[in-house]
Amino acid sequence: MEARAMLRAAGLYCTAARLAVVDSLVQASGPIKPSTISAQLGTRYDRVTVYRTLDSLVHADLVHKVFIEERACHYELAHRCSKTQCHPHFTCTCCGHTHCLTQLKIPMAQSPHLGFIVQRQQVRLEGLCPDCA
Length: 133
Description:
Helix content: 25-40%
Oligomer: single chain
Number of strands: 5
Distance between the termini: 34 Å
Number of helices: 4
Shape: globular
CATH topology of the largest domain: Arc Repressor Mutant, subunit A
CATH superfamily of the largest domain: Winged helix-like DNA-binding domain superfamily/Winged helix DNA-binding domain
Order of helices and strands: HHHHEEEEE
Structural class: alpha+beta
Strand order of the largest sheet: 4-3-5
Strand content: 15-25%
CATH class of the largest domain: Mainly Alpha
């Protein structure tokens, strides 16, 4: 699906910044940092615009915050995830590349502790990818 159609389906205006950020996420092979998106967009949009745009896309459930690494969130399109569970990710400890494991199904965790309610589950696995193994 193209960026304009995704934004319209989410009920968002098709601003130039939103179109550019969604295009960056569509082209990405996996979750990416806002700094990577900013670098791809060059001087057209500052980092504040990229962060605000990502926040609006997260709020509209078009994009998910996938995980935090080195104090930076990684983002990806939400089209392969549900509201309660994101597909698992595998990060290679050698090359650092993160792979989406969309075929791997992991049951939703149930908290054994009284009073804790699991609302969203994200699983990130680490190890060696086939190229580094």
